[in-house]
Structure formats: structure tokens, C-alpha cells
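Incident log, support desk, overnight shift.

02:14 A customer reports that sequence design results differ from what the structure should imply. Their input is reproduced verbatim below. On-call engineer (initials T.W.) acknowledged and began investigating.
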């Protein structure tokens, strides 16, 4: 047998092997396509399901509020519905900080919401979170929480009011005083009431400086008489006035 004849035999064998490999690959691709097609058909014909709510991190009123928000969408098939519309409906609830809407192979369309965490009451109907966002809690019983500071003023100035509360608490902490109630009036006058009943009134002129100086003076000269003070008025260009409690 000549060398040329041997080479031709090897080439023929390689061609047959290559042909079988292509046939096997095509069969595999065909099977994958068929399986995928039938799977999509099955999912597409799957019965509609109610939107699933992940409620493990929610209170009962929050869960009920969320269910009411998505109720108009009714039941939906796996690939049905507009997730963006559902998300917009959920995030429109003022107590919701973040929301996620996704498709889950087992539970269908799933909604998860993260509630805002209040750090203070804001007026008598709302609350405010650490980002300065004013919101209405899902449970009306949460408003006017006695364990939280109460802030008053325009919602458009909520962030400034919250930061003022934090600043006052920081400045007066050495005296053991914490804000219990803080008001920003329409005339930009600050009225601060501490937990011991002491009331401080200050205008919008050099407010930060006046509060800082007051905290220093009280700490240096009146620390032992703090509880004898009824109010301090800082609405003077130079100095301030103190009203003392009447001792019985």
C-alpha cells in the first residue's frame, strides 16, 4: 500500500468523523430549542396568579397597605403585567423607602418593600426619617409616638428642622439636655423645648452661634441650676434673658 493511499484513507475517516460531530451538535441544538420552545409555551399558558407580597419585614398595617396598592392589578401570568407600573404604585406609598418587583419562577410576580424608619414625629399626622423625608406611616397609631421627638414646621423645611434638632442635641448633651419638642414658626423663629421643660427661643439671625454660646455659658455658669430655669430668650443682639421657675 502506498503512502498516498494511506493518506486518502485517513482523510476519508476524518471527514466522516467531522460529519458525525456536526450531526450530533445539530441534534443537540434541536433538542435544546424544542425543550425551550415547549417550556416557553407551558409558561405562557400558565394560569394567572395573584401578585405575591414578601411581608416578613412588614407590620400588619404595612402589609395591608401594600396589598391595597397592588389590588387593582389583579392576577397576572408569569410574563404578564408591567413591572414598572407595579413598582410605581408601590413606591407612591409615602411610608415605602425602597421597593423591588421581580418575576419568581415559583411564586410569580413578587413585590418586596422596605419601610421608612422614623426618627421623629412631624406635626400631628406625619413622621420623618433620617434622610429628612416626611411621610405618613401605614399605621395611624404610630403617629405622635411619645418615645420620639416631635418636630413642627413646613414640610419643605423638614430637612433643616431635623438637622437643627441634631445640632441642638449635640450642643446641649454635656448638660444632659435632649430636645423633646422643636418648632420652626412661619417667621423663622425657633422654639425648643427640652425634656426637663426648659424652653429656648431664638430667631433666625446667627442662630447656630447663639445656641452654641448659650450651651457654653450654661455649662460653665449655670449647670447646677438648669432645672430651675423656665425659659431662655436669645432674641437679642447682645446677650439673652432667663425666666426662672417659681419655687414653692
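02:41 Re-run completed on a clean worker. Output:
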Amino acid at each position: 500500500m502506498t503512502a498516498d493511499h494511506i493518506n486518502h484513507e485517513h482523510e476519508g475517516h476524518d471527514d466522516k468523523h467531522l460529519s458525525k460531530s456536526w450531526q450530533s451538535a445539530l441534534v443537540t441544538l434541536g433538542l435544546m430549542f424544542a425543550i425551550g420552545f415547549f417550556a416557553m409555551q407551558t409558561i405562557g399558558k400558565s394560569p394567572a396568579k395573584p401578585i405575591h407580597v414578601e411581608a416578613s419585614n412588614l407590620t400588619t398595617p404595612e402589609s395591608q397597605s401594600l396589598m391595597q396598592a397592588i389590588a387593582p392589578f389583579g392576577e397576572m401570568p408569569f410574563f404578564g403585567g408591567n413591572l414598572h407600573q407595579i413598582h410605581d404604585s408601590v413606591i407612591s406609598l409615602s411610608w415605602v423607602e425602597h421597593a423591588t418587583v421581580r418575576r419568581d419562577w415559583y411564586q410569580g410576580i413578587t413585590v418586596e418593600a422596605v419601610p421608612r424608619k422614623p426618627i421623629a414625629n412631624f406635626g400631628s399626622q406625619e413622621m420623618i426619617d433620617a434622610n429628612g423625608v416626611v411621610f405618613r406611616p401605614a399605621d395611624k397609631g404610630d403617629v405622635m409616638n411619645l418615645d420620639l421627638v416631635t418636630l413642627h414646621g413646613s414640610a419643605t423645611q423638614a430637612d433643616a428642622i431635623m438637622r437643627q434638632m441634631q445640632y441642638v442635641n449635640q450642643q446641649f448633651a454635656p448638660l444632659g439636655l435632649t430636645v423633646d419638642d422643636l418648632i420652626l414658626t412661619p417667621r423663622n423663629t425657633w422654639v425648643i423645648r427640652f425634656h426637663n421643660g426648659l424652653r429656648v427661643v431664638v430667631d433666625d439671625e446667627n442662630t447656630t452661634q447663639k445656641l452654641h454660646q448659650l450651651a457654653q455659658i450654661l455649662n460653665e455658669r449655670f449647670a447646677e441650676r438648669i432645672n430651675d430655669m423656665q425659659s431662655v430668650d436669645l432674641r437679642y443682639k447682645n446677650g439673652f434673658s432667663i425666666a426662672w421657675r417659681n419655687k414653692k
